[in-house]
Amino acid sequence: MAGYPYLPLWVNAFLGDTMHMDNRECGAYLLLLMVAWKKSDGGLPDDDKILARWARCSKSEWARVKPAVMAFWTKDARGDFVQKRLEIERTYVVGRTQKASAAANAKWLKEQQKRDADALSEQGRSSRQASALIPRPIDTLTSNHTDPARAASLSPTGFAAPAKLPSVNQRMAAIAAKSRKAFVGTA
User: Fold this and answer.
1) Which residues, including other chains, have CB under 8 Å from residue 28's CB and lie 6 or more apart?
2) Taking the mean position of all CA atoms in its chain, how far away is CA 178?
3) Which whole-number Å values give the CA distances from 5 to 34, 40, 41, 73, 87, in the listed order?
4) DSSP tag of 159
5) How far is the C-alpha of 80 from the C-alpha of 35, rounded, in Å?
6) Is 177:187 a contact under the CB 8 Å cutoff?
7) b/e per residue, 156-187, with b = 16+ CB within 10 A?
8) Residue 120: its pLDDT value, please?
9) Per-residue pLDDT tens digits for 31-64
10) What is the pLDDT of residue 158?
């Protein structure tokens, strides 16, 4: 199982289950556990030649250690040998991996939403700054038309008289001056 490079090994449980085995039997069993872990289906074939090679045993050595080693394995519906505890650990690791992946995806999505919201906020701030330079109609419902000075400053369209507004060149010069001040630090 290439996707899960580590095999959780509960040392106390492993030692407790294998105390009756000699070093060759224990080593062969551990090697077969690791091979089964790496396989995507988690099973071992019912083939003594292959099992002996994976357990790093000669043919005669395998015949001697097989009864002790294979006592931990049962056959599944396909006829392959599977190990119950190995399947439990595989389920645990798959669950942890999926949970970690879901958490990482949720975190990424949350950060992406924050970046999008920040971009929209910045875009809104930029458009508000730009719209501040555009003359707006004077609200005729709330304006005081009895004030002669104010009434004189209104044009027929409801905008303030253009004579009091800076020209486009003046506004662009003001923007350029602010930019230079922001980047250079001097006016």
Assistant:
1) 55, 56, 57, 62, 65, 69
2) 40
3) 10, 12, 15, 22, 15
4) B
5) 13
6) yes
7) eeeebeeeeeeeeeeeeeeeeeeeeeeeeeee
8) 79
9) 999 999 888 888 899 999 999 999 999 999 999 9
10) 57
Look at the pTM and tell me if it is higher than 0.70.
no
- Residues 76, 82 contacting (CB under 8 angstroms): yes
What is the residue-wise DSSP string for 68-122?
HHGGG-EE-TTS-EE-HHHHHHHHHHHHHHHHHHHHHHHHHHHHHHHHHHHHHHH
Q: Which two tokens stand for residue 73?
A: 């394995």
Q: Which of 102-106, 116-120, 135-139, 146-150 is the most confident on average?
A: 102-106
Check residue 132 and give its pLDDT.
64
Fold of 1-120: Arc Repressor Mutant, subunit A (1.10.10)
Residue-by-residue DSSP string for 40-64: TT--B-S-HHHHHHHTT--HHHHHH
Q: Residue ranges of the domains in the chain?
A: 1-120, 144-187
Residues 128/133/134/140 CA torsion (nearest 10 deg) = 90
Cβ-based neighbours of 115, under 8 Å, separated by 6 or more = none
Mean pLDDT of 134-145: 55
Percent of the chain whose pLDDT exceeds 90: 28
Q: What is the mean pLDDT of residues 127-147?
A: 59
